[in-house]
């Protein structure tokens, strides 16, 4: 673990010139991703980002933007607003089954078994799965209220508890 950034070994923060955003790069595997890797020390990363990146490039630290960036993993159930997904034409699981499934996913992420992005890309019922669950930046009024409130309440790098919305059940990772 890097003592300054809180990132696991071989990971570093790089800056995307095209998107004008920081991202995470593994020098050993040459993998890059927009979300912090599994086993990152969120508090150290937050301090590192605030010290390394000026407010213009770090919207979470600037206080000048009313937008956040987050990724999510959605598990729909039969009572969801649209009980279908890219994975299944008709979702028939109950809300309790969805909650149990999502809690298992959350436990695996927090235990360091799998990264959020890897799990979201295979298990999320949202089309954002193809981007590792990344929803990009969004502001007030752009998401369902329960989801938005939870995302804005998180610190960068923090994972939410299970959040319920009309779309289903989510876990959210705030990324900026």
TrEMBL record:
InterPro entries listed in its UniProt record: PPIase_dom_sf, PPIase_Pin1, PPIase_PpiC, PPIase_PpiC_CS, WW_dom, WW_dom_sf
The protein's Enzyme Commission number: 5.2.1.8
Domain WW: 5-39
KW rRNA processing (keyword) present: no
Span of domain PpiC: 65-176
Broad class of enzyme this protein falls into: isomerase
Keywords: Isomerase, Rotamase
Record-level GO cellular component terms: cytosol; nucleus
Reactions it catalyzes: [protein]-peptidylproline (omega=180) = [protein]-peptidylproline (omega=0)
GO molecular function annotation: peptidyl-prolyl cis-trans isomerase activity; RNA polymerase II complex binding
Pfam families (UniProt xref): Rotamase (PF00639), WW (PF00397)
UniProt GO BP: negative regulation of transcription by RNA polymerase II; negative regulation of ubiquitin-dependent protein catabolic process; positive regulation of rDNA heterochromatin formation; positive regulation of RNA polymerase II transcription preinitiation complex assembly; termination of RNA polymerase II transcription
PROSITE patterns listed in its UniProt record: PPIC_PPIASE_1 (PS01096), PPIC_PPIASE_2 (PS50198), WW_DOMAIN_1 (PS01159), WW_DOMAIN_2 (PS50020)
SUPFAM superfamilies linked: FKBP-like, WW domain
The protein's name in its UniProt record: Peptidyl-prolyl cis-trans isomerase
Species: Tortispora caseinolytica NRRL Y-17796
């Amino acid at each position: 673990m890097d003592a300054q950034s809180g990132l696991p070994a071989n990971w570093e923060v790089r800056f995307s010139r095209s998107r004008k955003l920081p991202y995470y790069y593994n020098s050993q595997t040459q993998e890059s991703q927009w979300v912090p890797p599994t086993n990152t020390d969120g508090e150290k990363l937050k301090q590192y980002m605030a010290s390394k990146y000026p407010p213009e490039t770090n919207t979470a630290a600037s206080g000048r933007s009313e937008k956040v960036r987050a990724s999510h993993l959605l598990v729909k159930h039969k009572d969801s607003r649209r009980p279908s997904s890219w994975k299944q034409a008709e979702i028939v699981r109950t809300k309790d089954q969805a909650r149990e499934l999502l809690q298992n996913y959350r436990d695996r992420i927090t235990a360091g078994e799998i990264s959020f992005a890897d799990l979201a890309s295979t298990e999320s019922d949202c089309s954002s799965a193809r981007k590792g669950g990344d929803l990009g930046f969004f502001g007030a009024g752009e998401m369902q209220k329960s989801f938005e409130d939870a995302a804005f309440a998180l610190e960068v790098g923090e994972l939410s508890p299970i959040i319920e919305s009309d779309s289903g059940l989510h876990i959210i990772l705030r990324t900026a």
